[in-house]
Amino acid sequence: MLFEDTYRTINQPSEGIFRDKGSKFIAYAYPFKSEDHLKERINDLKSQHTKARHYCFAYRLSKDKAVYRINDDGEPSGTAGRPILNTLLSNDLTNVLIVVVRYFGGTLLGVPGLINAYKSAAEDAIQQTIIIEKRVQDIYKVNFEYLQMNALMQLIKDEDLESFDQEFDLKCNIKIAINQSDINRIIGKLESIENLELQFLETI
Fold first, then answer.
1. Which of 20, 33, 142, 180 is buried most, with the most CB atoms less than 10 Å from its CB?
2. What DSSP designation does 74 have?
3. Pick the CATH number of 6-133 from 3.10.25.10, 3.30.230.30, 3.30.70.890, 3.30.70.100
4. Full-model pTM
5. Phi, psi (degrees; rounded to nearest 5) at 116
């Protein structure tokens, strides 16, 4: 195979916790595919933890893991967001958001103490969830005539393709997910079915 078509992520939210000198660090790990949901996640946690002092986070996005963001939310620079990101890096995870909510316990922890606390809380959250390996897939919308349905559905079954959002009427369409490593072969088979149009939607 010429390229890596799998990545590691998590399949469900989880929580972790770390305590030090009265301070409490509660980490929340989420499957995460778009920054569009970031504000909503942070606001949810702020409404749950109204007396917390900081809501620090890091996320990593995309199959090549190149998109990331960190936020120290008032903690000394480099003591919160970066250690959280480092736990994602060391576990080779992407499409994951981790938010650590801190309740201040009255005793300053210092830079090394903060780095350790945010890292430990994030690591605990990762250990409480299930890490899964996902294949990089391209999503296509297939438009076809009703008469082509049997041939198309047989191909989907034979190739064990994931399909969803189907509409069967006079004009029919269905969305399918194709592993990137199989793209050329599957597209070739789809294009051999008459009166069928393929529309690329996104890579996930």
1. 142
2. T
3. 3.30.230.30
4. 0.78
5. -65, -40
